[in-house]
Amino acid sequence: MLDLVLRDARIIDGTGRDGYHGDVGVRDGRIAAVGEVSEPARREIDVDGRAVAPGFVDIHTHYDAQLCWDPYASPSSAHGTTTVIGGNCGFSIAPVAPHDRDYMAHMLARVEGMPIESLAEAVPWDWESFSQFLDRFEGRLGVNAGFFAGHTAIRRHVLSEDGERRARADEVERMAAVLRECLAAGAFGFSSGNSPTHNDAAGRPVTNRFASKEEFVALSAVVREFDGTMLEFVPPPGQFAPEVIDLMSAMSAAADRPLNWNLLNVSVAIREACEQRLTASDHAAAHGGRVIALTLPASNAMRLNFVSGFLFDALPVFTELFELGLDDRTRVLASPEARALLRRSVDSPQGRALYYITDWAGLTVGQTFS
Questions:
Q1: Fewest 10 Å CB contacts: which of 65, 120, 338, 365?
Q2: Angle at CA 328, nearest 5°, toward 326 and 333?
Q3: Which residues, listed in sequence order, are joined to residue 11 by a DSSP beta bridge?
Q4: CA atoms within 13 A on the CB side of 334
């Protein structure tokens, strides 16, 4: 006898085939029958044509900190997500030395918009190694979770405050050893990036933006040693320079793993840029790698602000603006002359490279907050 049967479902089975009508039977917590289920069950639920599907896997999240106080990864689990992958963009919160915890918290608040109050009060920060970080979640989560080992965390762990430079060969070897420990402990893979949109709380480039191609490739090669792993990468916005395509291809080939990059925002307004960025997949395939674009299933809606400065602070002049305190920042934004300088920054080639994220030709203010 089955424990549960869901009757009259529209079944989306995850194989890619069209949805179809049928029943789903469950025994001992596992799906035991799909289709026309005649076996009796202790409990039956008429779902009346509603969709029944496997849980969604969200491969790009930043739930690393939130899972410390919210084991259900809200609100994703309410929308059918049963597996979340964190540690993307090079921003895992392990490994971390005790003296770097404050830096990491404020850096995450800057690059991912996490409230610093939550990071300070609700995250225990009682781990150093990746293994200790994962141990915190054992038996305490209502979702499945996996985490990349982030380049920023690894580089900071090895170089500490001396990370605004290329690493020496022996330092790269030490980083590789740390990454190997993370992967052995259960890290999902290696994440990194070299996007100019990633700065720390002081407005300085995050440390992996100073890494050489040799460092990126050497760390990617460590991933090859562990089955079931992959790479994640955040390249600069806009059309890809040849060296960016070459770097992602080389990383994937060295790891013998797929590399997914964030983010392809598809829009008719930037069709040529989208097509050019997708050539990275062709180049990688021709050079022994596999490079895949992480793509939004809908038009991108960005919520930008002048507090965190995320995205804005990648532009000339704006970088200096966000080095100021909030009061000074407000005074600058009140100046017509200063706003004219900022406007010219947006109209620069670097500014136009960000158009792919949100069609700035039609940028509108949808909501404002005091």
A1: 365
A2: 90
A3: 20, 52
A4: 6
